[in-house]
Amino acid sequence: MIQSKHSAPYPESPPKEKYKRELRALQIELVKLQKHIIKKGRRIVVIFEGRDSGGKDGTIKRITEHLSPRETRVVALGKPTDRDRHSWYFQRYVPHLPTAEELVLFNRSWYNRAGVERVMGFCSDEEYEAFMQTVPDFEAMLIKDGITLFKYYLDISKHEQKKRLEARRKDPLKQWKMSPVDAAAQKHWEDYSQARNAMFARTHTVLAPWSVVRANDKKLTRLNVIKDLLARLDYADKDEELAQPDPSLVFFYDETYLDNGMIAP
Description:
9 helices
């Protein structure tokens, strides 16, 4: 693992066979968790945000791989329509919120406005400011209505993003992932960093905190996100020892992490 001179130490990537064994054990725990969600009629929302090529697709795939498709949904919305652009901003997301017994994972979410739309100029300053002021209230309303909300930001280094984007361009099975926004990701690296930092500062709340995931290693990212999710939810027959994320890889946002290398500059 190549380390940036500004980054904090990073654990070694697990060998392939060890990774597979641990992933299978964690996926069994996820099945237990889903049984509990169904039995208790819980409503769970998990948001995944992060840099382009940050590993959102792969992480979500490993979470949902063996779960019931009837009670599990992945939401990955495309570009907003003209109707969306002239509606209440959150309106296009509300129909995708879970009903009783459901786990819903957002592969990018309403936080598009704080990231891609802000950096690429797809929204006005007024629209951005309105979003930043109202999103804590929106999330508080969801939580007070009984939805359990998790917000994960998958953070990678500029070097790692460059490597992954180059791999996408060369792999004919991954070229569908490339977009004009992806192509501009490296050029706008510092702009995205500033947008990310503002988002953390203004939308990390007691009710809906941000969990930052240091995601340079895909295997460690997948394992530790699942562990964190399991650790923060109660369910029958939990393997408490297994559901222990590495605190150097998954942690609640704090401003100090912007200066000590825990969050990529």
